[in-house]
Amino acid sequence: MSIATENAQKIAVKGNTPKHDKTNKIVSGSEALILSLIEEGVDTIFGYPGGAIMPIYDALYHYRHVLNHTLVRHEQGATHAAEGYAQMAGKPGVCFATSGPGATNLITGIADAMLDSVPIVCITGQVPEKFLGTDAFQETDVMSLAMPITKWCYQVADADEIPYIVAKAFYIARSGRPGPVLIDITKCAQFNQLKKPFKYEKRRQIKGYKPACKPREKDISKAAELLNNAKRPFLFVGHGVLLSKAEKDLLAFIEKTDIPVASTLLGLSAFPTDHPNYVGMLGMHGNYAPNKLTNKADVIISVGMRFDDRVTGNLDTYAKQAKIIHVDIDHAEMGKNVTPTVPLIADAKEALQALLPVVNENKHESWHLEFKKLHDEEYEKVIKKDFQAEGEHIKMAEVIRRLSEKTDGEAVIVADVGQHQMSAARYSKFRRTDSWLTSGGLGTMGYALPSAFGAKMGAPDREVVAVIGDGCFQMTIQELGTIAQSGLPVKIIVLNNNFLGMVRQWQQLFFDNRYSFVELSNPDFITIAKGFGINGQRCTHTDDLDASLDTLLNSKEAYLLEIVVEKETNVFPMVPSGMGVDDIRLE
Amino acid sequence: MKRRYTIIVFTENNFGLLNRITIIFSRRRINIESLTVSETERKGVSRFTIVIDYDETKIQKLIQQIRKIIGVLVVFHNEDDQVFFGQIAYFKVITSSFEEREKVMEIAHRHQAKIAFSAGDYVVIEKTGKEEDISTTLHLLEPHGVVEYCKSGRIAIVKDQHRFSKYAKNMDPEGWYSDEEFHELPLNGKH
Fold first, then answer.
1. A340: nearest CA in chain B?
2. What CA–CA distances, in Å, run from A95 to A98, A191, A446, B16?
3. Which residues pair with B75 in a beta bridge?
4. What does the pLDDT average to over A115-137?
5. Residues in chain B within 8 Å Cβ distance of A209
6. Do B179 and A214 count as a contact with CB atoms less than 8 A apart?
7. Which one, of A91, A443, A414, lies nearest residue A245 by Cα?
8. Do residue A343 and residue B19 have CB atoms under 8 angstroms apart?
9. Which chain A positions have a beta carbon within 8 Å of B176's beta carbon?
10. B68 three-class SS
11. Are A120 and A79 in contact, with CB atoms under 8 Å apart?
């Protein structure tokens, strides 16, 4: 490409929509893919090149000023980065990987996106069609691998299909209940010229695919009737509220009805934590009051959540006394785990908007008092102790509390998986929506570092802080290289207790203290970060906590703060596995 | 309480849909009793007829999961009284003498089976019908030496035409459920 064209492209990028002049021109499959991505509004790609995807990378080279490609250090990092990006940018994240090991390395992240309903589009290269099924070099049956963990996947062996399939993929990824899709493209389809001139048409419908539907009037009026007559109504907010951008509608609904609000793990930050109606998090390590009172509510309205087993505990004793209004966009979620009295199949925003005019203005003071009473009990028995610094030993909860204070509840917190995740979920304050990312359904260790990077790409103006355990950190630690190379100021906190803390906790409580392979002898994380070109420091004493957090937050570059925390703390409250939500233990 | 279900799935005729559907069953450790894939009266639409024995309290969840697959156009489940169904079976019976062949042919005629093919030392009997009819035929032919026996999966026609056409609308070229129809689809715990 000539310098002039390069400059022309740079100028085009400065406008809102990057233009290309290839419509109605004959192009190769690879170029058709790149053009299709541009047409779809893609500007960011996370990927890793290799043999079977080289033609696509070659086409990408010509459009490198239009599409911002980040070279990750491992394909799993690409998927999590795409997840973080998708959730912050509000559009599908895109990953490139080559065939064979490139594609198999995507699997964990794709499964993660599937369970947490995150829209990502993965493009994998594949060996030429004539080699399919011959065990050729770097040949894997990616379609069969991806099938159970994608919303949709497709193998392209004909270059002419590319624009049509990309349009279909993006439509499927983002519509209805979002999810991951994968397109596998054979090398010959990448090389071949399209027979027809390039044309792109966005998809608006697919035969037999019903992504969403309007709420039904009779369901709305039935739900309103239940809510208006409820003495102890309770609202659960899930990820669906964030996905449909229904936060303001939820707030209006709550202001009018005065219903207490509890959040799922993925619903965090959809509702302000400092709101008087917010009563905390549901589930295994959620708050005491919402778990206890789930079994006292007379009407439960759940919005955009799926009654995951970590939320419900034993289903046989779960909310049996309550009439349940289940608002979800996905038909298949209705009755999957709990049987709703009113199944309200709809987008969260549309459902809340339809409910608002027909619900009565209300006050539930005595019901709120019940929550307060139980909250106070949790405060005395758990929270207070979690915040008490004991000499030099720093507690995870204390770190989170101060981090929240210092960021004013305005930062994006990206949590990995384990005890530190539960601490972060319990003690982070959220005053702004879209401020929480974590791996919920799959519980993928190693999620946070690449996801935080993706989040920063998707929302460059937000402060992004990754909260990572020492075990998780070592699962995707190589992405420090990606962060360093990008120059993005991602803030990283590693809470180091030299244990796989959550597994250790279970071994202590349910396996008679037999600590089976959970103790970690860790490397010097700060030296490692420095090796990658990222500054950092280790904090080992409570007295230094404030200053070290300030250094982290004030850094203009990426920064790693390792905090050595108490070795053997347990996360409480806890609903023991297989027990009911009201069997929640405080100690 | 387990019941026998004939699940009928109409899909687009695409690669991989068989795989997508069967993993729904294998993931839940459901044994597929029989599975038949066939073309339909509509161009580009395939029909899967799947027979399973399954818990009546869970069947609807399973149907909802199958319906979710992109490329699946219609799916519904039937108990045995809601469908007209049958199978086809072939029996290869050794007939070393003329008398023996006569006897085998007589059994076949008595049971509405026919001789589909014959070679010098064996005949192939063809029998269509329900599982139990085929079992009876097998039972009667066994003393004569059945060296090969194979049976197709179940195929089934929905008896209630009104119910069928309500679903079938979703297979039309521009077809998908209206919001109202989508809401009306059965849910687990609500019949």
1. B189
2. 10, 20, 17, 23
3. B9
4. 98
5. 70, 176
6. yes
7. A91
8. no
9. 205, 207-210
10. helix
11. yes
**What's residue A19's pLDDT?**
65
If DSSP codes are grouped into helix, strand and coil, which group holds residue A521? Answer: coil
Contacts of B162 (CB under 8 A, 6+ apart): none
Cβ-defined contact of A334 to B68 (cutoff 8 Å) = no
Q: For residues A514 and A507, give the distance between their C-alpha atoms in angstroms, rounded to a whole number.
A: 6
* Exposure b/e, A187-210, CB count within 10 A at least 16 = b: bbbbebebeeebebeeeeebbbbb
**How would DSSP label each residue in A575-586?**
--TTSBGGG-B-
pLDDT of residue A1: 41
Q: Which residues of B touch A176 (CB under 8 A)?
A: none
A84-98: pLDDT as tens digits: 999 999 999 999 999
Structure confidence by residue, pLDDT tens digits, B155-185: 999 999 998 888 887 787 666 788 888 888 8
Strands (E) located in B27-142: 32-39, 45-55, 72-78, 83-94, 114-118, 122-129
- The single-letter code of the amino acid at A449 is L
Please identify among residues 30-89 of chain B the ones whose CB lies closer than 8 Å to any CB of chain A.
60-61, 64-65, 67-68, 70-74
CA distance A444 to A417: 6
Residue-wise pLDDT tens digits, A552-566:
999 999 999 999 999
- Strands A44-48 and A93-97, by their bridges, are parallel
Average pLDDT over residues A197-225: 94
- Comparing alpha-carbon positions, the chain A residue that sits nearest to B27 is A148
3-state secondary structure of A348: helix
Q: Mean pLDDT throughout A182-201?
A: 97
Tell me the C-alpha distance between A158 and A195, whole Å. Answer: 10
Taking Cα atoms as reference points, which of A392, A433, A394 lies closest to residue A410?
A433
Whether A331 sits inside 8 A of B170 (CB atoms) is no
Residues of A in contact with B188 (CB under 8 A): 334-336, 339
Least confident range from A229-233, A241-245, A374-378, B174-178: namely B174-178
Tell me the whole-structure pTM to 2 decimals: 0.95
Residue of B23, B64, B188 with shortest CB distance to A148: B23
State whether B170 and A219 contact (CB < 8 Å): no
Task: Pull the structure tokens for residue A277.
Answer: 């109606």
Find the closest chain B residue to A209 by CA distance: B70
Are the Cβ atoms of A343 and B68 closer than 8 angstroms? no
**Buried b / exposed e across A457-493, counting CB within 10 Å, b at 16+?**
bbbeebbbbbbbbbbbbbbbbbbbbbbbebebebbbb
Compare CB distances from B20 to A147, A172, A219 and report the shortest one's residue. Answer: A147
Chain A residues whose C-beta sits inside 8 Å of any chain B C-beta: 143-144, 147-148, 151-153, 155, 172, 205-210, 213-214, 216, 219, 330-332, 334-336, 339-340, 343, 345
Amino acid at A353: Q
Check if the beta carbon of residue A579 is closer than 8 Å to that of residue A314.
yes
Determine the straight-line distance between the first and last CA of chain A, rounded to whole angstroms.
Answer: 66
DSSP A297-334: -SEEEEES----HHHHBSGGGSSTTSEEEEEES-GGGT
Chain A residues whose beta carbon lies within 8 Å of the beta carbon of residue B68 = 330-332
Q: Is A341 or A14 the better-scoring residue by pLDDT?
A: A341
Question: Token pair 């209206």 is at which residue?
Answer: B178
Structure tokens at A297: 């509510």
Residue in chain B nearest A177 by alpha carbon: B68
B119 touches chain A (CB under 8 A): no
pLDDT beyond 80 at A546: yes
Q: In the predicted model, what is the mean pLDDT of residues A243-264? A: 98
Q: Which helix (H) or strand (E) holds A550?
A: helix A542-554
